[in-house]
Specification:
This protein has 139 residues and is α/β, with parallel strands linked by helices. Helices cover 38% and strands 27% of the residues. The protein has four helices and six strands, in the order E-H-E-E-E-H-E-H-E-H. Strands 2-3-4-5-1-6 form a six-stranded mixed β-sheet, with helices on both faces. Strand 3 and strand 4 form a beta hairpin. The radius of gyration is 14 Å and the shape is globular.
């Protein structure tokens, strides 16, 4: 793994919506993907030799540990997850990052639900910045 990105914000700030938009964007350009939507979404995308996983849930320490287990199982290079602004989540992810020598980034989501698309676009840039996505020229 290379990095973990934690999208933090208050309850009902649009974190899940933002990450679902990110999942939709990644599914359009990835070589292959798997999405599980049991309660919240857990998705993994492949781009050549790079794997990106996104987990939309992140309310409790138990859920965050489940996300970490999923990231490890999927052998991800980039992990993205929601976390609450309060609680043990940030410390849990910091320990996970330290243990695995990962870069960790915390993105603070504002409370404005209309900004979800903008945050998703920024996250998309962040997770795909080092991936060569083939663009087909259309005449």
């Amino acid at each position: 793994m290379k990095k973990i990105i934690a999208l933090s914000g208050k309850a009902e700030s649009g974190k899940t919506t933002t990450l679902n938009i990110l999942i939709n964007l990644l599914s359009i350009v990835s070589d292959s993907f798997e999405i599980s939507r049991e309660y919240d979404s857990m998705a993994t995308f492949s781009f050549n030799d790079t794997r990106i996983s996104v987990c939309t849930s992140g309310d409790t320490g138990d859920i965050l540990q489940k996300n970490i287990d999923y990231f490890e199982e999927q052998k991800c290079d980039v992990c993205v997850s929601a976390i609450r602004t309060k609680g043990a989540g940030w410390n849990l992810y910091k320990e996970f990052a330290k243990k695995n020598n990962l870069e960790i980034l915390r993105i603070s989501k504002d409370d404005d639900k209309t900004s979800c698309r903008l945050y998703a676009a920024k996250l998309f840039q962040m997770v795909t910045s080092e991936i060569d996505i083939e663009v087909i020229e259309v005449n």
